[in-house]
Amino acid sequence: MGPAQSLCTVSSLLKPRLFSRKRRLKSQFIMSGYTHSDAFDSGTLAVGTIHRLHYEQYGKPDGKPVLFLHGGPGGQTSKANTAYFNPSVYRVILLDQRGTGKSTPQTELRENTTPDLVTDIESLRAHLNIPKWHLLFGGSWGSTLALLYSEAYPDRVGSLLLRGVFTTRDAEVSWSRGVLGAANIFPEAWEAFVGFLPAEERGDPVAAYYKRLTGTDERAKAAAAREWNRWDLSIGTLRVDEDAFLNLKDEVWSLKHALMEAHYAVHHFWLEDGQILRRENLEKIAHIPTTIIQGRYDMVCPPQTAWDLHRALPKSKLIWIADAGHSPKEPGTKAELLKACDEFSLDPL
User: Fold this and answer.
1) Is 326 tagged catalytic?
2) 3-state helix, strand, coil in the chain (%, to 5)
3) Tens-digit pLDDT profile for residues 276-311
4) What is the active site of this protein (predicted)?
5) Given 51, 103, 120, 140, which residue is catalytic?
6) Superfamily for domain range 41-104+111-164+275-345
């Protein structure tokens, strides 16, 4: 065997190893995403007469501003949410919505409505001297706020990245908390959810749970919160994530999450049915480049909504994740979110 043949043989042996290593590195990146240093800024912003919002900023101080809008209502942000964004390009802003996360006062229901939260986004933009959001990133309830804000302030939004789209239509709420949607896929979990309630109250579980979550019996509130969240966690992923149920042991998190979700749901999110998807409202944001990422088997936010939104927005792209439910942590979903953020990072300010 001559030198050239020898080199060729060695090269052919190395290629599979190098390819395998690249695949491992890519897989590790998808699982972890980008790594950020600690926040370069954090603060509070007084809004209304009661609330003080907590926010943090990561990445490049003069970078392209992206606002991460968490889900819920009742969710919160953490440094882990920065993983989608290249820190050498993006100025990443995390915001805890009213009554959640590090915002105060905790679990405060007064002055806590959907219009309030939309106004808060604009107040934060002005407070941080950001002329225009380069990107709004919203998942689930965060997608609701991203759409509402964009329809209210279309000239303040450069692009939209939406995951697990929710537009608050009655049909969407019924899908996740009614008898004809997710309940038919997870009948045992649904039976446990409504079985917590007296038989005479099971026809409207949202109202029945809200009554308990806003009551004065602390033990009853904690029990109701656990069962409300147990249902959410049961249907949140394509394959049930048993580790997620550990959150039920955290009574502070559990009550906050359940109370806010029920508070907004029982008030129909302070929106008219179908308001976000009305033609005259979508026309306001038709010019905004939009990427929609949707799990094919999303039991929390029905995939039909992502399809309806995509068909109505001419500059939108819809990416179906064939092996995912609602969670952003599912590998296929996270990979596409990372890819989309990298693509939007190339757009000019």
Assistant:
1) yes
2) 50, 15, 35
3) 999 999 999 999 999 999 999 999 999 999 999 999
4) 140, 298, 326
5) 140
6) Alpha/Beta hydrolase fold, catalytic domain (3.40.50.1820)
